[in-house]
């Protein structure tokens, strides 16, 4: 095991914990609605209170994404988005804010470039690591080797349906934190966050995960407070993407302040 | 007989296969795998499966010699494995009945499926009706237009058909949407994947339910000709009918195996669905296999006149068999396919599915290449489905209908108006 101090996202989570709160992790799709606005929105998100930025790489077949994020990423792909843009965004946001910036990507994007080359370029851009929603540790030998080599975080998902053995595998294979899937379903804001979220966190912690952050369905300050009472971090995606769509970078900053209780 | 290739089990076929899937679905995949393994070793299960094949599907399907079709192509004898005569009109019923039995064993009450040409959707709707289960079929919006008759057919059988208007609106997008449904509904729902792609155990399980095609064909050709065939030809989209018939002959080294991919407007145009011919490894829908993708790893939209072959990847065992050189995969263009389609209609009185016509075209090409060497040779073509569903597409291709009639027909169809033309 690599020492946790090497992990940028673990450091951000621990810094939030030191002030008595859970970390706030905000998701935005790379290059939406365009590269410059995306960078401005990401900076506004971090200045508004996010501890970690999650930059989603638009992908042709996003099976874990609900309609809002799909619509956004489809638009980005339609304007001729290329992967190199992601590294530009990671670099710009990291340089401007010093925050931990993770990419969230379906694995074929990494596979096509090669795990080693992808990790090298991400590390070179100052990125903290990657969340890989359709990669399970069982298939991740190349990615684990590459992230070890470049000191990057690798965040695997633990689900309500994960057995204790699988929760243990996910905890052992992850670095930075474990992404606890709070509901069985795709991304999208929901009225309430299901009670299973707390169980997923408990299961993951008892399987050995030092840090568990919860995502899928989080859309309000009350969700953030509720989840923050038992998880190490709260991940918000769809609500921020909708804000960006409707009100640009300014609206993202405003929502970030609301969600983080800074408004 | 060696068993070098037969009965290969997942999760990996060489470098291919595996489980490139969200963690949320792993427990369900484990449950399906365990249930399938137990079921195929349980005589009560296999007896029930083969009873349904016999008494519901109408198996064994015939092996028909196509003398007049063969004579137009060259000198080889050509036999057709008549999966088109199965109940619901294609090989797809073999897999669907098996998976419905698995779903029942799992205690699931709802079946979901993706469909391209509609054949798998019709088969799943049929099984759901037979087993008294709820059924939702996801179908690309473009395909609901190309295959309006099959949409109505599924609705008649009590299924809900959901047109998918994301992406290319074809088979791959229907699979994405079915996966989204499954992640949210896995407690009550079994996903009846229609081909030998997807995460383990689907490639192995779907093949197992289609192996009956090759087992029957091998026995029938020995009885009818006294010899093994020189070649077996099948069309390959995801590759379920192909693996089903190939399996019977995989370890017969004298039998050449040919998989014919959809060449669309020609591989050189980029508008095709020939994933193996293109030769780029990647992961999509849960499996590592050959995948039509660009330099960044984005899936490239496939193109084919045949909705059922319009898929940018292929089952992982096919990728492996290609690398091993055991099966030869070649593209067949829309034009070649439709020429064989027309030929079979006129010479044999059989209207094939456009998917299957790719295999017919490939076999005709093979016989032509053999020339007089083909005189003593035998080819089996897997006629995976019948062409009733394709009459409108074929009528347009051959300009059999005045423009006004074509428009009238599409207006009357059950397909939603998405403004997208197939």
UniProtKB/TrEMBL annotation, chain A:
> Keywords in UniProt for this one?
Amino-acid biosynthesis, Aromatic amino acid biosynthesis, Lyase, Tryptophan biosynthesis
Positions of the catalytic residues: 54 (proton acceptor), 65 (proton acceptor)
Q: Where are the transmembrane segments?
A: none
Q: What Enzyme Commission number does this protein have?
A: 4.2.1.20
Gene Ontology terms, MF aspect: tryptophan synthase activity
Any keyword Amino-acid biosynthesis? yes
The protein's matches in InterPro entries, at most eight in alphabetical order, are given as:
Aldolase_TIM (IPR013785), RibuloseP-bd_barrel (IPR011060), Trp_synthase_alpha_AS (IPR018204), Trp_synthase_suA (IPR002028)
- Cellular component, GO annotation: cytosol
Lineage: superkingdom: Bacteria
* Pathways involved: Amino-acid biosynthesis; L-tryptophan biosynthesis; L-tryptophan from chorismate: step 5/5
Reaction catalysed by this chain? (1S,2R)-1-C-(indol-3-yl)glycerol 3-phosphate + L-serine = D-glyceraldehyde 3-phosphate + L-tryptophan + H2O
Top-level EC class: lyase
Q: Do you know which Pfam families this protein is assigned to?
A: Trp_syntA
Function summary: The alpha subunit is responsible for the aldol cleavage of indoleglycerol phosphate to indole and glyceraldehyde 3-phosphate.
Similarity comment text for this entry: Belongs to the TrpA family.
Q: How does it assemble?
A: Tetramer of two alpha and two beta chains.
Database matches in PANTHER family: TRYPTOPHAN SYNTHASE ALPHA CHAIN, CHLOROPLASTIC, TRYPTOPHAN SYNTHASE, ALPHA CHAIN
What name does this protein carry? Tryptophan synthase alpha chain
Q: Which organism is it from?
A: Nesterenkonia sphaerica
From TrEMBL, chain B:
Q: Give one GO term, molecular function aspect.
A: tryptophan synthase activity
Record flagged with keyword Mitochondrion: no
Q: Which InterPro entries match?
A: Trp_synth_b_CS, Trp_synth_beta, Trp_synth_beta/beta-like, TrpB-like_PALP, TrpB-like_PALP_sf
* Domain of life from the UniProt record: Bacteria
Which ranges carry the Tryptophan synthase beta chain-like PALP domain? 59-382
- Keywords of this protein's UniProt record, alphabetized? Amino-acid biosynthesis, Aromatic amino acid biosynthesis, Lyase, Pyridoxal phosphate, Tryptophan biosynthesis
Role of this protein: The beta subunit is responsible for the synthesis of L-tryptophan from indole and L-serine.
Its subunit composition reads: Tetramer of two alpha and two beta chains.
Q: Which HAMAP family match?
A: Trp_synth_beta (MF_00133)
**What is the protein's name according to its record?**
Tryptophan synthase beta chain
Organism per entry = Nesterenkonia sphaerica
């Amino acid at each position: 095991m690599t020492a946790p101090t090497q992990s940028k996202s673990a450091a951000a989570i621990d810094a939030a914990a030191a002030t008595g709160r859970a970390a706030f992790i905000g998701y935005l799709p790379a290059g939406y609605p365009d590269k410059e606005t995306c960078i401005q929105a990401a900076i506004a998100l971090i200045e508004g209170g996010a501890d970690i930025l999650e930059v989603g790489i638009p992908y042709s077949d996003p099976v874990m994404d609900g309609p809002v994020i799909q619509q956004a990423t489809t638009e980005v792909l339609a304007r001729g988005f290329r992967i190199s843009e992601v590294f530009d965004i990671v670099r710009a946001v990291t340089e401007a804010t010093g925050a931990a910036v993770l990419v969230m990507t379906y694995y074929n994007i990494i596979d096509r470039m090669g795990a080693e080359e992808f990790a090298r370029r991400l590390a070179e851009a100052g990125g903290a690591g990657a969340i890989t929603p359709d990669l399970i540790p069982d298939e991740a030998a190349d990615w684990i080797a590459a992230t070890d080599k470049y000191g990057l975080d690798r965040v695997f998902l633990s689900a309500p349906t994960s057995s204790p053995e699988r929760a243990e595998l996910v905890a052992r294979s992850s670095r930075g934190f474990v992404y606890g899937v709070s509901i069985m379903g795709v991304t999208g804001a929901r009225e309430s966050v299901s009670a299973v979220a707390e169980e997923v966190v408990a299961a993951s912690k008892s399987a050995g995960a030092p840090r568990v952050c919860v995502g899928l369905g989080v859309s309000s300050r009350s969700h953030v407070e509720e989840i923050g009472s038992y998880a190490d971090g709260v991940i918000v995606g769809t609500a921020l993407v909708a804000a960006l769509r409707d009100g640009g970078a300014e609206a993202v900053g405003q929502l970030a302040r609301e969600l983080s209780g800074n408004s | 007989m060696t068993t070098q290739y037969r009965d290969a089990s997942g999760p990996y076929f060489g470098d291919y296969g595996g489980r490139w899937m969200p963690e949320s679905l792993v427990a369900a995949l484990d449950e399906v795998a365990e249930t399938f393994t137990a079921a195929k070793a349980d005589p009560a299960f296999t007896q029930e499966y083969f009873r349904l094949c016999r008494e519901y599907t109408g198996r064994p399907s015939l092996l028909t010699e196509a003398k007049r079709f063969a004579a137009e192509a060259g000198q080889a004898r050509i036999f057709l494995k008549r999966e088109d005569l199965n109940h619901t009109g294609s090989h797809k019923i073999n897999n669907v009945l098996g998976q419905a039995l698995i779903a029942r064993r799992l205690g699931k009450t709802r079946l979901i499926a993706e469909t391209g040409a509609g054949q798998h959707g019709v088969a799943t709707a049929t099984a759901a009706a037979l087993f008294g289960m709820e059924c939702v079929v996801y179908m690309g919006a473009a395909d609901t237009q190309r295959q309006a008759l099959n949409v109505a057919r599924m609705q008649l059988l009590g299924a809900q058909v959901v047109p998918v208007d994301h992406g290319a609106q074809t088979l791959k997008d229907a699979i994405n949407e079915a996966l989204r449904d499954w992640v949210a509904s896995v407690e009550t729902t079994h996903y009846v994947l229609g081909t030998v792609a997807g995460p383990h155990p689907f490639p192995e399980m779907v093949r197992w339910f289609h192996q009956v095609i090759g087992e029957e064909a091998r026995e029938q050709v020995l009885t009818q000709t006294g010899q093994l065939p020189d070649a077996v030809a099948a069309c390959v989209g995801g590759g379920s009918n192909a693996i089903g018939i190939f399996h019977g002959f995989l370890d017969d080294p004298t039998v050449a195996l040919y998989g014919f991919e959809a060449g669309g407007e020609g591989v050189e145009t980029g508008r095709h669905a020939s994933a193996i011919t293109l030769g780029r490894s990647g992961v999509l829908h849960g499996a590592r296999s050959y995948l039509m993708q660009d330099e960044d790893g984005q899936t490239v939209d496939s193109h084919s006149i045949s909705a059922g072959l319009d898929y940018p990847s292929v089952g992982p065992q096919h990728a492996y068999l290609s690398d091993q050189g055991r099966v030869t995969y070649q593209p067949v263009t829309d034009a070649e396919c439709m020429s064989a389609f027309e030929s079979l209609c006129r010479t044999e009185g059989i209207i094939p599915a456009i998917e299957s016509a790719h295999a017919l075209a490939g076999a005709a090409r093979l016989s032509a290449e053999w020339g007089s060497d083909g005189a003593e040779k035998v080819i089996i073509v897997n006629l995976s489905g019948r062409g009733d569903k394709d009459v409108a597409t074929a009528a347009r291709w051959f300009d059999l209908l005045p423009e006004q009639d074509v428009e009238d027909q599409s207006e009357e169809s059950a397909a939603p108006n998405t403004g997208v033309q197939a």
